[in-house]
Amino acid sequence: MKNQTQSQSKLLHISPSMWQEFRQAMLEARQDREEVIGFLFCKRHHLSKKKLRYIPVDWVVPTPDCYEHQSESGLVLKQSFHQYILDTYLKDNKDSKNLKLDIVHVHTHFGDADPTFSEIDNRHEAEYARFLSFCYDSQPRLISGVFNESLEKSRFRLWDRKGISHVPIEFYNSWFIPTVSNEVSLNQQENRASHAQLNSIFDYQSSAFNFSNGKASSSHQVIANDMFARQQIFGKGVQESLGQIKVALIGCGGIGAVFAEQLSRLGVKNWCLVDPDFLETVNLNRMPGATEQMVEQSWSKVHYVKWLIKRAYSSGSQIETLACSVEDESVPQAIAAADLIVVATDNHRSRQVAQELALKYIRPLLCLGTQIEIKENRPNMYARVTVPPLGGGWCLMCANIIDLQQAALESAPQEISNLAQRAGYLDGVANPAVYWLNSLCASSGVGVIHGILSGFLKLDTGLDWIYDFSNSLWLKNSTEHLLNQDCYYCNSPSSHLHKSRFHEQLDLQHNFAGNSIHEIGFRRVS
Known about the structure:
The protein contains 15 helices and 20 strands. The longest helix has 20 residues. The C terminus is likely disordered.
């Protein structure tokens, strides 16, 4: 009988932006065709009892002067560099790094064949795993990875604390973590290797699907009827992915309801719905299928959106409803277990919380919003769809989608909050909204998600689209100007996911005392 550690699925998930920086640093550290090594430092995130995710929060790649030996056949790092790594990232109770981090060793092998671990790798990694467990109270785990020299093909494993055995760990550097079968996952690894130029945004092609006479069939019975027959053109595995991902929707009002209706019809069946409000008569002008009877019966908005989705899937869907504020203590873990966070609220505070959760758990975030304003007796109407880059670089605060002063007012006592809630709206008209503008925004958001899964959209630097309805203009903003190295939330050193660092220079002449790193060796690959 397998124990919990053996039966638990383990994932190493690096955001596309972090992976791009780390991979580039590894390639630049090679002077010719020598093997190179890099280090990732991870925090654990329990997605469920059966799934554990390791999230890198920082990385280091040593430069050539950090090696005692480096060639095509192996490498040895200087002892002082070893000690620097330990003191900076693993030393117990160090205030700036008190995150109980686990360490990932990533090294390359010469050539472009599928990499395998050598016997020398086995011996040194086993010794290092025991050393970490013995010398540190937090007992950090060792994850090791080996790549070919182009860093396109890989293999990863997680060592036990005794250094006796190891188990495979799945490596992803994409926007979504799939929950599909092993057969599909293996195929996805091949796709990532052949589409590295897209930074491994999932193609989700699967040999599990066979097409005959225009109809799709799967051993997993993902497509049980002809409902999605006309979506086959987007790829064999895209439909299965839509049926597997879980979406956390924060805000089930005029935009969120339309979004959920359309995305569920596209094939998304797994949801977490968050909204504290109940249906009101004023909502009926823009909530599809909502009735006065629902208002009279005091339906919560999450209950109503669940009903919308269930109309498409009377069975086979999984919908978690949380009729509470996004700040409720029950919400973060539920949202963190989703593959995508969508925020469609009309206040700054909820968007701020959603952004913080997305950064903390490395979750893709899609922000949907509309605005109507009157200038010179003429209505100006806008819809905005924003996707910050996964893992930081810029965020909703950097894009001025969130006003932190306004967010603070909204979380203030009720009398102050009421003043803030009225700010920005027309006098005498609360929260102006119309169905067609909400629908345009929601549909665009659905298109973005489908584009990511299908591989049509490349979102390494994020996305920020604004539709100026009054002037019939789509404004696809350049996101380069949004990059903010000083943002407290997405790039601060004190943040959970701060900017990764490439240490170019170290004082290698300094004498370090302490653990017998030299006896352990480090890694000498063959």
